[in-house]
């Protein structure tokens, strides 16, 4: 280890989006890979929108000039979209309540810097959940306290969480991260969990990550203006088909947004990414038209996987399905993931379970057939 590098980084591994499984190389690599391990939309931008974006690139973007560091146009477009979903009693979200990041990952890091750095706070998460909160916290020397979830529906163990809030002192918990609906377990927040969040005192920030909002159609944005200690995160990486462009946004009190704006790099978002996200906002009804198909396919996949022996499958409010082995005859799911991979189906093995992204109808069909063959053969 080079002696000038922080010693606490030596335990950290770089994030690998597609961890290699033990079976890698056992059989020939299949030609087709159904990438159902990262929860993106299965659909690329439609060709005519790519063409429009290409035109914007050719005609309007001067590559020798820095991008718009204020993101003004994009923030206005996002504000309009967010307000459509906020409900009548919400009070409008203004562009000054939005900060745009290089993916919502950047915003998570900015939130950690703005709240917890320099020994001023730790964070609370409920596992299993999105791993980036704890990973980014660790890179900044911030402690992540993890509580559990109830296995029947993966609701947060609120008693344990409350206990952690009361006992954690040096430094105290400054931020609670929840995902609505959660990844990898696909459950939306319950009314009881939301009540608990409403009662969190003002000196603790509640971050509600709504990365899958377009699939769940359930949001807390309508309550945001009543809770200055809430922030909502959204992304263009999932339903809007722009994972390659790296655009996410935070919706929050203007003072928190001002703090995030101080922390971010001045030109965090390339002009091309801003143009792509603005196009997605203009064309939102076109892009979101694929959602009903994804939800119908999710329900079909859920039914079919539930019928397989040896698995417990949880209902989903998102575009992915979580399952584990049942108690009596659990299959070896790490091995199953590896075998699925050799058959061209990539799924995510995590926290003793599998997370399967809903793909196109033909991808889902192949997924089911592979599950059926492998579990049929091994049970
Ligand atoms: C996919 C995902 C994101 C998106 O992150 P980006 O950096 O915007 O791509 C954020 N939060 C959760 C829970 C996710 O699953």
Automatic annotation (TrEMBL):
<dbReference type="Pfam" id="PF00155">
    <property type="entry name" value="Aminotran_1_2"/>
</dbReference>
<dbReference type="InterPro" id="IPR050106">
    <property type="entry name" value="HistidinolP_aminotransfase"/>
</dbReference>
<keyword id="KW-0032">Aminotransferase</keyword>
<feature type="region of interest" description="Disordered">
    <location>
        <begin position="20"/>
        <end position="42"/>
    </location>
</feature>
<dbReference type="GO" id="GO:0030170">
    <property type="term" value="F:pyridoxal phosphate binding"/>
</dbReference>
<dbReference type="InterPro" id="IPR015422">
    <property type="entry name" value="PyrdxlP-dep_Trfase_small"/>
</dbReference>
<feature type="domain" description="Aminotransferase class I/classII large">
    <location>
        <begin position="36"/>
        <end position="369"/>
    </location>
</feature>
<dbReference type="InterPro" id="IPR004839">
    <property type="entry name" value="Aminotransferase_I/II_large"/>
</dbReference>
<comment type="subunit">
    <text>Homodimer.</text>
</comment>
<dbReference type="InterPro" id="IPR015421">
    <property type="entry name" value="PyrdxlP-dep_Trfase_major"/>
</dbReference>
<keyword id="KW-0808">Transferase</keyword>
<dbReference type="GO" id="GO:0004400">
    <property type="term" value="F:histidinol-phosphate transaminase activity"/>
</dbReference>
<keyword id="KW-0368">Histidine biosynthesis</keyword>
<feature type="modified residue" description="N6-(pyridoxal phosphate)lysine">
    <location>
        <position position="238"/>
    </location>
</feature>
<protein>
    <recommendedName>
        <fullName>Histidinol-phosphate aminotransferase</fullName>
        <ecNumber>2.6.1.9</ecNumber>
    </recommendedName>
</protein>
<comment type="similarity">
    <text>Belongs to the class-II pyridoxal-phosphate-dependent aminotransferase family. Histidinol-phosphate aminotransferase subfamily.</text>
</comment>
<dbReference type="GO" id="GO:0000105">
    <property type="term" value="P:L-histidine biosynthetic process"/>
</dbReference>
<comment type="pathway">
    <text>Amino-acid biosynthesis; L-histidine biosynthesis; L-histidine from 5-phospho-alpha-D-ribose 1-diphosphate: step 7/9.</text>
</comment>
<keyword id="KW-0028">Amino-acid biosynthesis</keyword>
<dbReference type="InterPro" id="IPR015424">
    <property type="entry name" value="PyrdxlP-dep_Trfase"/>
</dbReference>
<keyword id="KW-0663">Pyridoxal phosphate</keyword>
<dbReference type="InterPro" id="IPR005861">
    <property type="entry name" value="HisP_aminotrans"/>
</dbReference>
